[in-house]
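Sat 14:20. Reprocessing the chain from the morning session after the first attempt stalled halfway. Input below, unchanged.
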Amino acid sequence: MLSLTLSGNCSLLPRPNNRRCALFFARTKRTTLVTSALTRETVAISQDAMADSRSLSFPILVNGVTGKMGKAVAEAAVSAGLQLVPVSFSSLDKPARTLEISNIEISVHGPSEREEILSSVTEKYPDVVLVDYTVPNAVNANAELYCKFGVPFVMGTTGGDRPLLYKTVQDSNVYSVISPQMGKQVVAFLAAMEIMAEQFPGAFSGYKLEVMESHQATKLDTSGTAKAVIACFQKLGAIFDMNEIEMIRDPKEQIKMVGVPEEYLSGHAYHVYNLTSPDETVSFEFQHNVGGRSIYAEGSIDAAIFLHKKVQSKAEKKIYDMIDVLREGNMRCPTLPTAF
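Finished this time. Tokens:
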């Protein structure tokens, strides 16, 4: 949910921080005028886009299906009507094993087999698109492998040496979508914030910013999305130190204070950004909550479809990000039937 609240009553701004957390996140349970509900016009546009894409199907290989994110992407690919290649790779050299995803047996191979296996995949599926959701320390080696075999790929894995990643792709002339954030709506929100910061610098001069972000307990670092949003608010003149981000990782607090449903404790992103005027008579609140991994999985599939079209059209540009995917439009709506 993305919400914006404007208040002229400073009594609505709780103090101290522990009360602020409870109040901010309690608002996630109420219905606001700003919701993700589709208008009739949006539904019509999405239906038209889907009608144009119903005949589209191509093989897709998901690297990292042993992880939760990779599994979610593989399931989304099948739901979208794409041909899931029954192969994936593991970062550990173990005997080849299989796992089942959407009634498809996926064969998982270790590093020592990956060149041989990928070579056979490209022979059998010459128009394959690969989606990578592995681990940060495998990003660069995996990219080198994909580029060596000329496989177009979507890099959803964060971390690694990013400048080297881009150089590897650029030198190989392979098509790719590289983005640390695959959630389409979150990317759109970030883009809007960047535009606002660029066009209206100082609009929030003197305003105090308070930020809280809640993620699964296994996420030890601060949210990169939160840092990007904060940077925009700082350009707008808001006062904030990155060390002041309130990170919530305790599952008990997430349930009681944040309002995270128990089924999403192992995978969620709840963020609140509150701005208060110097005289405390005005407040702005920006909020976005993500439960589960479907938003990233669906965005990854849209990126793969986008990339497949670029390859087929022999587009001059080779390296893209999620902003390019958003600008292209024609993305599927997960609330509508997704079979092509």
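Residues 294-312 form the longest helix (19 residues).
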